[in-house]
Amino acid sequence: MTLREAVEGTEYIIKAIETDDEEMDAFLFSLGCYTGESITVVSHLKGGCVVSIKDGRYNIDHQLAGAIIV
């Protein structure tokens, strides 16, 4: 399942990042979003979702959310 289908408020463990775009992969890694890290969807928005990774909250679009497998 990707973050697009994730339930709000539930903590998940990232199983994989599926993207061929190195820039997107590097961006997610800079946020602390990598395999084995926990992630929580705070809320789903029209253009994406708000996620909590470590001590930060980030707004990511549907393309990024679809690349994160939990």
UniProtKB/TrEMBL annotation:
Q: Establish whether keyword GTP-binding is in the entry.
A: no
Which ranges carry the Ferrous iron transporter FeoA-like domain? 1-70
Q: Which domain of life is it from?
A: Bacteria
By its UniProt entry, which InterPro entries does this protein fall under? Fe-transptr_FeoA-like, FeoA_core_dom, Transcriptional_repressor_C
Q: Which UniProt keywords apply?
A: Iron
Stored Pfam families: FeoA
Give the Gene Ontology MF terms in alphabetical order. Answer: transition metal ion binding
What's this protein's name? Ferrous iron transport protein A
> What organism is recorded for this protein?
Merdimmobilis hominis
